[in-house]
Structure formats: structure tokens, C-alpha cells
Design brief:
CATH topology: Jelly Rolls
Strand order of the largest sheet: 2-11-7-13-5-4-3
EC number: 1.14.11.55
Strand content: 15-25%
GO molecular function: oxidoreductase activity
Number of strands: 13
Bound molecules: ligand 6CS, fe (iii) ion
Radius of gyration: 18 Å
CATH class: Mainly Beta
Distance between the termini: 26 Å
Catalytic activity: L-ectoine + 2-oxoglutarate + O2 = 5-hydroxyectoine + succinate + CO2
CATH superfamily: q2cbj1_9rhob like domain
InterPro entries: EctD (IPR012774), Phytyl_CoA_dOase-like (IPR008775)
Shape: globular
Helix content: 25-40%
Keywords: Dioxygenase, Iron, Metal-binding, Oxidoreductase
Number of domains: 1
């Protein structure tokens, strides 16, 4: 495996005009070794096979309280509500996500460099890493809406020009994830296949896709087949749990009609050997608060 990627070669074509195919992923999920960081050999093997890892007690209850206070402070700040990096719910108008939080909150900037995150991200990706995307997500009780099935890498490749799936996401739960309050569902092992999606990317797709993704989603046949072969798992657990998941895993979430809200901190690490180029399947790159182009390694 060479570290150099020729960005002119599109190894994962998508947003096609005609029905596509399933591409076997040729790139590894885990690029590092047990001696490179906190995950032991068994944990790395499981991550390579399933495409995700759940770590309970990733942060302490005191830290959960501190970050929750920070999220509430941000959500209540009129400047944040009006900020172009804030996405609101399509129907209720409530704050749904705030992007590029490391630039808005010193506390979250520090978290992105915390060895608990950084050492794991570097180990999984086998190199220095930088932040591709960060956000805090709020899913209110009763009215929270989910996301249809998708692979993040499909979007990051097509719309952001990420060459290969050498990125990993860390989602830290600040509330308990029950099986019934809109928690993330994943198909274990789905990260090994790249599902080509049909439909050209419209201009300014991100203006709507972050509320409801309609482009870059697999067909119902694809989902039926994958779910039949692989099954569906869910990220459940107490506040303070972390989910590490591969950029190409098939995932989605349902609406939250329970009274129990859900919020999390979401950080995407990309390898410095996989920096963004021109989009592979979109008319123009997305804004940098969604797809960061400052590739300075985190220290
Ligand atoms: O657009 C993004 O970067 C993320 N959001 C959505 C709705 N899909 C792809 C990815 O998870
Ligand atoms: Fe996603």
C-alpha cells in the first residue's frame, strides 16, 4: 500500500446517471498497529471487521456535565443561532447541529486534541490526522428527526474530494442513547463495500442535505440486501460513551418521538495522507466549515 494517492484517479465513482454497482473496498480500515496506540490487537481486529467500536466510560460523568453545559451555552447564544455554521430543524426551527465547533468553543478545541481521541485516531489511520469536520448534534425529544441510511465517505468523496476512506468519526454521547430515542444504527461490516449512488449532485446541495439527505443515498434494494446479509446494530449506552466508526459504514437514524433528548459531540479525523482535492461528484467544493481544508496536523 503506498501512501501517495493520485487524486485524478477516482477509485470510488458515485452520483452516477445510471444505476451503479457495489465496489469492494480495497483500502484497509485500520492502518496502524497495536503498538501505535491505545487499541490492542483484538480491538483493532474487531474494528477492522465490524467498522465500529463502542467505548463506554470514554469520558467521565464530570466531563459529561461540563460538555453538556458548554453545548447548552452554545445553543442558547443568539450569535450561535444566527451563525452560518448552525443548522436548524426543517420543521421546528430548533438548533440541530453546529459545525466547526473547535473554532467556536475552546473547550471543544481542547477535546479534539485530547490524547484519548488523538491517539486513537492516529492509531486507526496510521498517520498524523487533522479535523475534516466537527459538529455538535442536538436531537430534541418528540421532534428530533433522523437521517436516512448513508455512508459519510460517499458524501465526503463526491462533494468534498476526499480521495479514499481513510477517515474515522468519533461520536461522544452526552445523553443516554436508548434503543428508542433516535440513536445511530449501523450495519456491521458494511464499511467494506462502497455503494455507488445514483443521481447528480445539485448545486448547493449542502443547504438542504444537512437537514435531510436525499442525494447520495443507496437504493432500497441495496439497503434490503445489506441489512439481510449484515444485520443492523445500534449505538446504545450511557452518557460518556463513544462510538468510533469508519467513514464508509452504512448508518442512519430514526426520528425521536420519545421525551428523551439526545445530544453528542461529533469529530471526524482524516489522515494527512488523504487530504481533500476537487470534488469527485459535485459542481463545487462545500464550504470549509463543513469540509475543512486546513490540513495542519493536530498536536
Ligand atoms: O454531509 C456530511 O458531511 C454528513 N451529513 C450527512 C447528512 N450525510 C453525510 C455526512 O454524514
Ligand atoms: Fe453520517
Amino acid at each position: 500500500m503506498t501512501a501517495t494517492i493520485d487524486p485524478t484517479t477516482d477509485l470510488y465513482p458515485t452520483r452516477l446517471s445510471q444505476p451503479g454497482a457495489v465496489i469492494d473496498r480495497e483500502h484497509p480500515t485500520v492502518w496502524g498497529s497495536p503498538e501505535d496506540g491505545p487499541f490492542d490487537a483484538a480491538a483493532l481486529k474487531a474494528h477492522e471487521e465490524r467498522g465500529f467500536t463502542i467505548l463506554e466510560d470514554f469520558i467521565t460523568p464530570d466531563e459529561v456535565e461540563g460538555y453538556t453545559a458548554e453545548l447548552n451555552r452554545l445553543a442558547a447564544d443568539p450569535a450561535v443561532r444566527d451563525d452560518h455554521r448552525t443548522v436548524t430543524e426543517k420543521v421546528s426551527g430548533e438548533v440541530r447541529s453546529v459545525f466547526e465547533v473547535q473554532k467556536i468553543s475552546e473547550k471543544l478545541d481542547a477535546l479534539s486534541r485530547d490524547p484519548r481521541l488523538l491517539d486513537r485516531a492516529r492509531q486507526l489511520l496510521g498517520s498524523d490526522v487533522y479535523l475534516h469536520q466537527t459538529r455538535i448534534n442536538f436531537m430534541p425529544g418528540f421532534k428530533g428527526t433522523g437521517f436516512y441510511w448513508h455512508s459519510d465517505f460517499e458524501t465526503w468523496h463526491a462533494e468534498d474530494g476526499m480521495p479514499i476512506p481513510r477517515a474515522v468519526s468519533c461520536s461522544i454521547a452526552l445523553t443516554r442513547n436508548y434503543p428508542f430515542n433516535g440513536g445511530l444504527m449501523v450495519m456491521p461490516g458494511s464499511h467494506r463495500s462502497f455503494i455507488q449512488c445514483v443521481g447528480e449532485t445539485p448545486e448547493n446541495n449542502h443547504a438542504s442535505s444537512l437537514k435531510e439527505q436525499k442525494i447520495g443515498v443507496p437504493t432500497e434494494d441495496d439497503i434490503t440486501r445489506m441489512a439481510g446479509q449484515l444485520g443492523v446494530d445500534q449505538f446504545t449506552g450511557p452518557a460518556g460513551s463513544a462510538l468510533w466508526f469508519d467513514s464508509n459504514i452504512m448508518h442512519g437514524s430514526g426520528n425521536n418521538i420519545t421525551p428523551f433528548p439526545r445530544s453528542n459531540i461529533f469529530m471526524v479525523f482524516n489522515s494527512v495522507e488523504n487530504t481533500l482535492t476537487e470534488p469527485y461528484g459535485a459542481p463545487a467544493p462545500r464550504p470549509e466549515h463543513i469540509a475543512n481544508r486546513d490540513f495542519t496536523p493536530l498536536r
